[in-house]
Amino acid sequence: MTRASFQISAARGFDLATDAALKGPRDIETQTDPKSLEVHMDSRKCRIVILFALGVLAHAAVARAQDVELWRARAAQIPIGATVKLRTHDGVRMRAVLMAVDGSGMVVKPVARLPEPSRHLSFDSIDALDRFEDRVSFPKYIGLGAAISGTVFLILLAGAR
Question: How many domains does the chain have?
């Protein structure tokens, strides 16, 4: 036992042998050996990390299966020919026209300045899918109303002469 570890265990009020005796009926000699304690802790950490990784992977697989069903249901609700906004797992964002929906994915034709061929996107590659509705915001309505009002006012002012 090194001096630093003895000081730490002395500050706790007991040494490694006492700690090992309190933990259970294991061989005290193997537990007091710092090397065996390190190996035991390393194997415990390794098991925890492996179990955590398996849990994350299992959760991801279940979530991905649920996402596929979600995207399939959402795509079935959108009428064919509607414009959709979508994002893939690759990070590609696009506006596209929905052309067909089948069991494995959907066929979309991207809306772009230069014509692009239609694409088949599988449901497991989709990260976001929404119907695109071109809306005019309230500031645009206010600006349009002000422009029309100004034009009508100028026409009435010109007609009064």
Answer: 1
- DSSP-assigned letters across all residues of 93-126: EEEEEEEEE-SSEEEEEE--SS----EEEEGGGE
Q: What percent of the chain has pLDDT over 90?
A: 27
Domain assignment of residue 136, yes or no? no
pLDDT computed for residue 100 by the predictor: 92
> Does 67 map to a domain?
no
Residue 119 lies in a domain: no
Q: State how far Cα 154 lies from the chain centre.
A: 54
Regarding pTM above 0.90, the answer is no
Say if CB 17 and CB 37 are below 8 A apart.
no
Which pLDDT score, from 0 to 100, does residue 28 have?
47
Structural domain boundaries enclosing 13 = 3-60
Of 5-9, 26-30, 106-110, 122-126, the range with the highest mean pLDDT is 106-110
